[in-house]
Protein backbone atom coordinates (compact mmCIF):
# COMPACT_ATOMS: atom_id res chain seq x y z
CA UNK A 1 0.00 0.00 0.00
CA UNK A 2 1.46 3.36 -1.01
CA UNK A 3 1.67 5.68 1.98
CA UNK A 4 1.65 8.99 0.15
CA UNK A 5 -0.04 9.06 -3.22
CA UNK A 6 -1.02 12.70 -3.49
CA UNK A 7 1.83 15.15 -3.09
CA UNK A 8 0.17 18.57 -3.02
CA UNK A 9 -0.50 19.78 0.50
CA UNK A 10 -3.87 21.49 0.01
CA UNK A 11 -7.02 21.07 -2.06
CA UNK A 12 -9.29 18.17 -2.85
CA UNK A 13 -7.91 15.05 -4.42
CA UNK A 14 -8.52 14.15 -8.06
CA UNK A 15 -7.51 10.90 -9.76
CA UNK A 16 -7.39 11.03 -13.56
CA UNK A 17 -7.53 7.77 -15.49
CA UNK A 18 -6.64 8.45 -19.09
CA UNK A 19 -4.52 9.13 -22.10
CA UNK A 20 -1.19 10.85 -22.58
CA UNK A 21 -0.03 11.74 -26.07
CA UNK A 22 2.86 13.60 -27.57
CA UNK A 23 1.22 16.04 -30.00
CA UNK A 24 3.29 16.63 -33.15
CA UNK A 25 1.86 19.82 -34.62
CA UNK A 26 2.73 21.21 -38.05
CA UNK A 27 1.42 24.39 -39.68
CA UNK A 28 0.71 24.24 -43.40
CA UNK A 29 -0.86 26.69 -45.88
CA UNK A 30 -3.76 24.26 -46.31
CA UNK A 31 -4.62 20.66 -45.44
CA UNK A 32 -2.88 18.27 -47.89
CA UNK A 33 -4.80 16.29 -50.51
CA UNK A 34 -4.28 12.51 -50.76
CA UNK A 35 -0.84 11.87 -52.25
CA UNK A 36 0.21 15.52 -51.91
CA UNK A 37 3.39 16.80 -50.22
CA UNK A 38 3.24 20.33 -48.82
CA UNK A 39 5.89 22.62 -47.35
CA UNK A 40 4.86 23.49 -43.79
CA UNK A 41 5.91 26.57 -41.85
CA UNK A 42 6.33 25.44 -38.25
CA UNK A 43 6.66 22.36 -36.10
CA UNK A 44 6.03 21.94 -32.39
CA UNK A 45 6.07 18.95 -30.10
CA UNK A 46 3.76 19.45 -27.11
CA UNK A 47 2.33 17.37 -24.30
CA UNK A 48 -1.30 16.39 -24.92
CA UNK A 49 -3.89 13.68 -24.60
CA UNK A 50 -7.21 14.37 -22.90
CA UNK A 51 -6.16 12.57 -19.70
CA UNK A 52 -2.93 14.54 -19.38
CA UNK A 53 -4.59 17.85 -20.21
CA UNK A 54 -7.36 17.30 -17.67
CA UNK A 55 -4.84 16.27 -15.00
CA UNK A 56 -2.81 19.43 -15.60
CA UNK A 57 -5.95 21.57 -15.50
CA UNK A 58 -7.09 20.09 -12.18
CA UNK A 59 -3.59 20.53 -10.70
CA UNK A 60 -3.20 24.15 -11.84
CA UNK A 61 -6.66 24.91 -10.51
CA UNK A 62 -5.85 23.75 -7.00
CA UNK A 63 -6.38 19.99 -6.75
CA UNK A 64 -3.93 17.35 -5.61
CA UNK A 65 -3.82 15.11 -8.66
CA UNK A 66 -2.71 11.54 -9.32
CA UNK A 67 -2.57 10.08 -12.83
CA UNK A 68 -3.32 6.48 -13.80
CA UNK A 69 -2.16 5.70 -17.34
CA UNK A 70 0.63 4.26 -19.44
CA UNK A 71 3.48 5.73 -21.49
CA UNK A 72 6.08 3.93 -23.60
CA UNK A 73 9.72 3.27 -22.66
CA UNK A 74 10.89 6.08 -24.95
CA UNK A 75 11.87 9.76 -24.96
CA UNK A 76 8.25 10.90 -25.49
CA UNK A 77 7.16 8.91 -22.46
CA UNK A 78 9.92 10.35 -20.30
CA UNK A 79 9.06 13.87 -21.40
CA UNK A 80 5.34 13.44 -20.70
CA UNK A 81 6.03 11.97 -17.26
CA UNK A 82 8.43 14.80 -16.43
CA UNK A 83 5.84 17.37 -17.54
CA UNK A 84 3.25 15.96 -15.14
CA UNK A 85 5.74 15.72 -12.27
CA UNK A 86 6.64 19.38 -12.87
CA UNK A 87 2.97 20.20 -12.18
CA UNK A 88 3.13 18.27 -8.88
CA UNK A 89 1.02 15.47 -10.36
CA UNK A 90 1.68 12.13 -8.70
CA UNK A 91 2.85 9.63 -11.31
CA UNK A 92 3.35 6.56 -9.11
CA UNK A 93 0.45 4.92 -10.98
CA UNK A 94 1.66 6.02 -14.42
CA UNK A 95 3.02 2.78 -15.88
CA UNK A 96 5.64 2.31 -18.61
CA UNK A 97 4.92 -0.28 -21.29
CA UNK A 98 8.00 -2.33 -22.22
CA UNK A 99 6.80 -2.78 -25.81
CA UNK A 100 4.21 -0.19 -26.93
CA UNK A 101 5.42 3.28 -27.95
CA UNK A 102 4.04 6.38 -26.24
CA UNK A 103 0.79 7.61 -27.84
CA UNK A 104 1.17 10.29 -30.50
CA UNK A 105 -1.20 12.71 -32.21
CA UNK A 106 -0.19 13.95 -35.65
CA UNK A 107 -1.85 17.33 -36.13
CA UNK A 108 -1.87 19.48 -39.27
CA UNK A 109 -3.20 23.04 -38.83
CA UNK A 110 -3.96 25.23 -41.85
CA UNK A 111 -4.07 29.03 -42.16
CA UNK A 112 -7.78 29.12 -41.32
CA UNK A 113 -6.98 27.19 -38.08
CA UNK A 114 -8.77 24.09 -39.38
CA UNK A 115 -7.00 20.89 -38.48
CA UNK A 116 -6.75 17.20 -39.19
CA UNK A 117 -5.64 14.88 -36.42
CA UNK A 118 -4.51 11.25 -36.49
CA UNK A 119 -3.96 9.62 -33.10
CA UNK A 120 -1.98 6.43 -32.59
CA UNK A 121 -2.96 5.21 -29.10
CA UNK A 122 0.23 3.20 -28.56
CA UNK A 123 0.82 2.71 -24.83
CA UNK A 124 -2.60 4.24 -23.98
CA UNK A 125 -4.02 0.99 -25.35
CA UNK A 126 -2.15 -0.89 -22.61
CA UNK A 127 -4.35 0.53 -19.84
CA UNK A 128 -6.46 -2.50 -18.85
CA UNK A 129 -8.77 -3.51 -16.00
CA UNK A 130 -5.63 -5.07 -14.44
CA UNK A 131 -3.95 -1.64 -14.51
CA UNK A 132 -6.93 -0.23 -12.63
CA UNK A 133 -6.85 -3.11 -10.13
CA UNK A 134 -3.13 -2.54 -9.46
CA UNK A 135 -3.79 1.12 -8.62
CA UNK A 136 -7.11 0.91 -6.80
CA UNK A 137 -5.51 2.63 -3.81
CA UNK A 138 -5.25 5.80 -5.89
CA UNK A 139 -8.99 5.71 -6.57
CA UNK A 140 -9.73 4.91 -2.93
CA UNK A 141 -7.82 8.01 -1.79
CA UNK A 142 -9.36 10.40 -4.33
CA UNK A 143 -12.41 12.59 -3.84
CA UNK A 144 -13.20 12.75 -7.56
CA UNK A 145 -12.28 10.29 -10.32
CA UNK A 146 -12.12 11.56 -13.93
CA UNK A 147 -12.18 9.36 -17.06
CA UNK A 148 -12.38 9.88 -20.83
CA UNK A 149 -12.56 7.42 -23.74
CA UNK A 150 -9.03 7.62 -25.14
CA UNK A 151 -8.07 4.50 -23.16
CA UNK A 152 -9.68 1.06 -23.73
CA UNK A 153 -13.38 0.96 -22.70
CA UNK A 154 -13.05 -2.06 -20.40
CA UNK A 155 -10.44 -0.17 -18.36
CA UNK A 156 -12.62 2.95 -18.18
CA UNK A 157 -15.57 0.85 -17.06
CA UNK A 158 -13.40 -0.85 -14.42
CA UNK A 159 -12.21 2.54 -13.14
CA UNK A 160 -15.75 3.94 -12.90
CA UNK A 161 -17.00 0.77 -11.18
CA UNK A 162 -14.14 0.78 -8.66
CA UNK A 163 -14.61 4.49 -7.97
CA UNK A 164 -18.31 3.98 -7.24
CA UNK A 165 -17.48 0.96 -5.05
CA UNK A 166 -15.32 3.33 -2.99
CA UNK A 167 -18.15 5.89 -2.90
CA UNK A 168 -16.30 8.48 -5.01
CA UNK A 169 -17.69 11.18 -7.28
CA UNK A 170 -17.12 10.22 -10.93
CA UNK A 171 -16.82 12.43 -14.01
CA UNK A 172 -16.91 10.90 -17.49
CA UNK A 173 -15.92 13.01 -20.49
CA UNK A 174 -17.20 10.69 -23.26
CA UNK A 175 -14.58 11.76 -25.79
CA UNK A 176 -14.10 10.61 -28.43
CA UNK A 177 -17.66 9.27 -28.69
CA UNK A 178 -18.30 6.56 -31.27
CA UNK A 179 -21.89 5.63 -30.39
CA UNK A 180 -24.24 5.16 -27.45
CA UNK A 181 -22.61 4.00 -24.22
CA UNK A 182 -23.45 0.47 -22.97
CA UNK A 183 -26.44 0.50 -20.59
CA UNK A 184 -24.39 -0.40 -17.52
CA UNK A 185 -22.08 2.63 -17.84
CA UNK A 186 -24.23 5.67 -17.09
CA UNK A 187 -25.39 4.54 -13.64
CA UNK A 188 -21.67 4.68 -12.69
CA UNK A 189 -21.39 8.32 -13.79
CA UNK A 190 -22.14 11.24 -11.46
CA UNK A 191 -21.24 13.95 -14.01
CA UNK A 192 -21.40 13.14 -17.72
CA UNK A 193 -19.72 15.97 -19.64
CA UNK A 194 -19.98 15.64 -23.45
CA UNK A 195 -19.50 18.48 -25.90
CA UNK A 196 -22.33 19.09 -28.39
CA UNK A 197 -20.95 16.62 -30.95
CA UNK A 198 -20.44 13.89 -28.36
CA UNK A 199 -23.92 14.48 -26.89
CA UNK A 200 -25.34 14.01 -30.36
CA UNK A 201 -23.35 10.82 -31.04
CA UNK A 202 -24.35 9.37 -27.65
CA UNK A 203 -28.07 10.06 -28.11
CA UNK A 204 -28.67 10.26 -31.85
CA UNK A 205 -30.29 13.66 -31.17
CA UNK A 206 -29.20 17.12 -32.30
CA UNK A 207 -27.42 19.05 -29.54
CA UNK A 208 -25.87 22.16 -31.08
CA UNK A 209 -28.34 24.72 -29.67
CA UNK A 210 -29.08 25.18 -25.97
CA UNK A 211 -32.67 23.94 -26.50
CA UNK A 212 -31.53 20.81 -28.34
CA UNK A 213 -28.76 20.19 -25.82
CA UNK A 214 -31.35 20.14 -23.02
CA UNK A 215 -33.27 17.39 -24.82
CA UNK A 216 -30.08 15.38 -25.32
CA UNK A 217 -29.13 15.89 -21.66
CA UNK A 218 -32.58 14.71 -20.53
CA UNK A 219 -32.19 11.58 -22.68
CA UNK A 220 -28.79 10.89 -21.09
CA UNK A 221 -30.25 11.33 -17.62
CA UNK A 222 -33.09 8.98 -18.49
CA UNK A 223 -30.39 6.48 -19.49
CA UNK A 224 -28.88 6.69 -16.00
CA UNK A 225 -26.41 9.61 -15.73
CA UNK A 226 -27.05 11.53 -12.50
CA UNK A 227 -25.93 14.97 -13.76
CA UNK A 228 -25.29 16.02 -17.35
CA UNK A 229 -23.32 19.02 -18.62
CA UNK A 230 -23.33 19.53 -22.39
CA UNK A 231 -20.60 22.00 -23.31
CA UNK A 232 -21.48 24.26 -26.24
CA UNK A 233 -18.27 26.14 -27.03
CA UNK A 234 -18.82 29.91 -27.00
CA UNK A 235 -22.50 29.27 -26.10
CA UNK A 236 -21.46 27.96 -22.67
CA UNK A 237 -23.07 24.91 -21.12
CA UNK A 238 -26.43 23.21 -20.69
CA UNK A 239 -26.65 21.90 -17.16
CA UNK A 240 -28.93 19.22 -15.79
CA UNK A 241 -27.97 19.13 -12.11
CA UNK A 242 -29.87 16.97 -9.65
CA UNK A 243 -33.54 17.85 -9.43
CA UNK A 244 -33.01 21.46 -10.59
CA UNK A 245 -34.71 22.46 -13.84
CA UNK A 246 -32.44 22.39 -16.93
CA UNK A 247 -30.33 25.52 -17.18
CA UNK A 248 -28.34 27.21 -19.94
CA UNK A 249 -25.39 29.15 -18.61
CA UNK A 250 -23.65 31.29 -21.23
CA UNK A 251 -19.86 31.42 -21.42
CA UNK A 252 -18.08 34.67 -20.51
CA UNK A 253 -17.59 36.73 -23.68
CA UNK A 254 -13.95 36.67 -24.68
CA UNK A 255 -11.91 36.97 -27.86
CA UNK A 256 -11.03 33.37 -28.62
CA UNK A 257 -7.73 32.73 -30.37
CA UNK A 258 -7.31 28.97 -29.82
CA UNK A 259 -9.99 26.68 -28.38
CA UNK A 260 -7.69 23.65 -28.07
CA UNK A 261 -8.16 22.05 -24.64
CA UNK A 262 -11.12 24.29 -23.72
CA UNK A 263 -13.11 21.16 -22.89
CA UNK A 264 -10.20 19.66 -20.95
CA UNK A 265 -9.82 22.87 -18.93
CA UNK A 266 -13.57 22.81 -18.19
CA UNK A 267 -13.37 19.19 -16.96
CA UNK A 268 -10.22 19.72 -14.86
CA UNK A 269 -11.69 22.86 -13.30
CA UNK A 270 -14.98 21.13 -12.51
CA UNK A 271 -13.14 18.19 -10.93
CA UNK A 272 -10.91 20.45 -8.84
CA UNK A 273 -13.86 22.39 -7.40
CA UNK A 274 -16.06 19.35 -6.77
CA UNK A 275 -13.10 17.67 -5.01
CA UNK A 276 -12.92 20.67 -2.68
CA UNK A 277 -16.56 20.17 -1.76
CA UNK A 278 -17.87 23.14 -3.77
CA UNK A 279 -21.56 22.76 -4.75
CA UNK A 280 -22.13 21.71 -8.35
CA UNK A 281 -23.62 25.00 -9.71
CA UNK A 282 -20.68 27.02 -8.35
CA UNK A 283 -18.21 24.42 -9.62
CA UNK A 284 -19.74 24.68 -13.12
CA UNK A 285 -19.57 28.49 -13.05
CA UNK A 286 -15.90 28.25 -12.07
CA UNK A 287 -15.29 25.81 -14.95
CA UNK A 288 -16.92 28.27 -17.39
CA UNK A 289 -14.60 31.05 -16.20
CA UNK A 290 -11.47 28.86 -16.39
CA UNK A 291 -12.30 27.51 -19.87
CA UNK A 292 -13.00 31.03 -21.18
CA UNK A 293 -9.51 32.11 -20.11
CA UNK A 294 -7.96 29.08 -21.84
CA UNK A 295 -9.42 30.03 -25.23
CA UNK A 296 -7.75 33.46 -25.11
CA UNK A 297 -4.32 31.80 -25.21
CA UNK A 298 -2.50 29.58 -27.69
CA UNK A 299 -1.80 25.89 -27.19
CA UNK A 300 -3.29 23.09 -25.14
CA UNK A 301 -1.60 22.74 -21.75
CA UNK A 302 0.12 26.18 -21.87
CA UNK A 303 -3.30 27.85 -22.18
CA UNK A 304 -4.70 26.40 -18.93
CA UNK A 305 -4.97 29.11 -16.24
CA UNK A 306 -3.79 28.89 -12.64
CA UNK A 307 -6.04 29.18 -9.59
CA UNK A 308 -4.90 32.78 -8.95
CA UNK A 309 -6.28 33.81 -12.38
CA UNK A 310 -9.82 32.45 -11.98
CA UNK A 311 -12.17 34.22 -9.55
CA UNK A 312 -13.71 31.64 -7.19
P1 LIG B 1 -14.42 20.84 -26.58
O1 LIG B 1 -13.16 21.63 -26.34
O2 LIG B 1 -14.42 19.51 -25.89
O3 LIG B 1 -14.86 20.77 -28.01
P2 LIG B 1 -16.32 23.01 -26.13
O4 LIG B 1 -15.92 23.59 -27.45
O5 LIG B 1 -17.76 22.82 -25.87
O6 LIG B 1 -15.59 21.64 -25.81
O7 LIG B 1 -15.71 24.00 -25.01
C1 LIG B 1 -15.75 23.64 -23.65
C2 LIG B 1 -16.06 24.86 -22.82
O8 LIG B 1 -15.02 25.83 -23.05
C3 LIG B 1 -17.35 25.56 -23.15
O9 LIG B 1 -18.43 24.99 -22.46
C4 LIG B 1 -17.05 26.97 -22.70
O10 LIG B 1 -17.20 27.04 -21.30
C5 LIG B 1 -15.56 27.14 -23.02
N1 LIG B 1 -15.39 27.77 -24.33
C6 LIG B 1 -15.12 27.17 -25.52
N2 LIG B 1 -15.07 28.08 -26.52
C7 LIG B 1 -15.29 29.29 -25.93
C8 LIG B 1 -15.36 30.65 -26.41
N3 LIG B 1 -15.19 30.95 -27.71
N4 LIG B 1 -15.60 31.63 -25.51
C9 LIG B 1 -15.76 31.36 -24.20
N5 LIG B 1 -15.71 30.11 -23.69
C10 LIG B 1 -15.48 29.08 -24.53
UniProtKB/TrEMBL annotation:
Major enzyme class: transferase
Active site residues of this protein: 264
Pathway where this protein functions: Carbohydrate metabolism; D-ribose degradation; D-ribose 5-phosphate from beta-D-ribopyranose: step 2/2
Coiled coil: none
Co-factor: note: Requires a divalent cation, most likely magnesium in vivo, as an electrophilic catalyst to aid phosphoryl group transfer. It is the chelate of the metal and the nucleotide that is the actual substrate.
Binding positions for substrate per the UniProt entry: 21-23, 49-53, 150, 264
A single MF term (Gene Ontology): ribokinase activity
Catalytic activity: D-ribose + ATP = D-ribose 5-phosphate + ADP + H(+)
Mechanisms controlling activity: Activated by a monovalent cation that binds near, but not in, the active site. The most likely occupant of the site in vivo is potassium. Ion binding induces a conformational change that may alter substrate affinity.
Binding site residues for ATP: 195, 231-236, 263-264
Sites where the protein binds K(+): 258, 260, 294, 297, 299, 303
Superkingdom: Bacteria
UniProt xrefs under SUPFAM superfamilies: Ribokinase-like
UniProt-annotated location(s): Cytoplasm
Keyword Repeat among UniProt keywords: no
Keywords of this entry: ATP-binding, Carbohydrate metabolism, Cytoplasm, Kinase, Magnesium, Metal-binding, Nucleotide-binding, Potassium, Transferase
Chain ranges of the Carbohydrate kinase PfkB domain: 13-305
Cofactor: Mg(2+)
InterPro entries (UniProt xref): Carboh/pur_kinase_PfkB_CS, PfkB_dom, Ribo/fructo_kinase, Ribokinase, Ribokinase-like
EC number: 2.7.1.15
Subunit structure: Homodimer.
Functional description taken from the UniProt entry: Catalyzes the phosphorylation of ribose at O-5 in a reaction requiring ATP and magnesium. The resulting D-ribose-5-phosphate can then be used either for sythesis of nucleotides, histidine, and tryptophan, or as a component of the pentose phosphate pathway.
Family affiliation: Belongs to the carbohydrate kinase pfkB family. Belongs to the carbohydrate kinase PfkB family. Ribokinase subfamily.
The name this protein goes by in its record: Ribokinase
Origin species: Paraburkholderia denitrificans
Amino acid sequence: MTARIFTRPAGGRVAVVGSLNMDLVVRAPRLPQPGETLAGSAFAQVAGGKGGNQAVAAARLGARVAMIGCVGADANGEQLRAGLVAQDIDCAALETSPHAPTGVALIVVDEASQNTIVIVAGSNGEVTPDTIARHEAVLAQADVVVCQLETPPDAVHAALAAAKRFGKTTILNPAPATGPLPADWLPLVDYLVPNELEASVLTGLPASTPADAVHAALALRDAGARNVLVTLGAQGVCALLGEAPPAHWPAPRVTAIDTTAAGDTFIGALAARLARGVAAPAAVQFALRAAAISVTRAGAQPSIPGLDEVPT
